[in-house]
Amino acid sequence: MIIIKNKDWEIIKTIEADISKTLLRQLQDNEVEMAYACHTGICWACMCMIESGSENVNKSFKWEPWFPLWDDEVMTCIWGVKDKNIDVVLKTIY
Q: What is the pTM (predicted TM-score) of this model?
């Protein structure tokens, strides 16, 4: 499952994970409003904080971002999940 929280840490959506799609595509497909622009990991607009489940984030889903990230940050446009049976909890930044 992918659990999305807003900037106030309130759960706004829980969705079934799909290992074949980026996190951003899954959020969009499930009507979660998310800022995005470039779809290449350059603009930072879609970055989220990972509250838990970082070990299940597939950071080589598309390519590496153009800048370093902390371990608790994820670029939703270029990364996905490794296993749909492990929860990933994301907190939106904006």
A: 0.86
